[in-house]
Amino acid sequence: QVQLVESGGGLVQPGGSLRLTCAATGFTFSRYGMSWYRQAPGKERELVAVIDSAGYTNYADSVKGRFTISMDNAKNTVYLQMNSLKPDDTAVYYCRPALPRDYWGQGTQVTVSS
Predict the structure, then answer these.
(1) What are 18-56's pLDDT values in tens digits?
(2) What is the CA radius of gyration of the chain?
(3) What single string gives the DSSP state of each residue in 55-109?
(4) Of all residues in the chain, what percent carry a pLDDT higher than 70?
(5) Which of 37, 50, 84, 109 is 20 to 30 A away from residue 65, measured at CA?
(6) Complete edge-to-edge strand list for the sheet that includes strand 10-12
(7) Mean pLDDT (whole number) for 74-97
(8) For 86, phi and psi rounded to 5 degrees?
């Protein structure tokens, strides 16, 4: 059974940093890529960052140069380091494995506000 548990969100001032963590179980983590998505109030869920099983990464234009996605296969965990946060980054953040079926965790709230 696939389970995804996101954590690390919180309230941060503009310009601050947060590190999100997604702990995954129920599948062979090292064989699949992982993604981070976010959904702001009243908006559709959007793709933020992707990492494939070889470690190649890609980012939405809005976060390039500020966010970094990484994986630790030994811990079955994917991270999202978020720097230089802006109010527009406020959203619930979700991780998603590149599996044939869609699986989502409960998400973690990130609020960027002074």
Answers:
(1) 999 999 999 888 889 999 999 999 999 999 999 999 999
(2) 13
(3) --EEE-TTTTTTEEEEEEGGGTEEEEEE-S--GGG-EEEEEEE--SS------EE
(4) 100
(5) 109
(6) 10-12, 108-112, 91-97, 34-39, 46-51, 57-59
(7) 97
(8) -120, 160
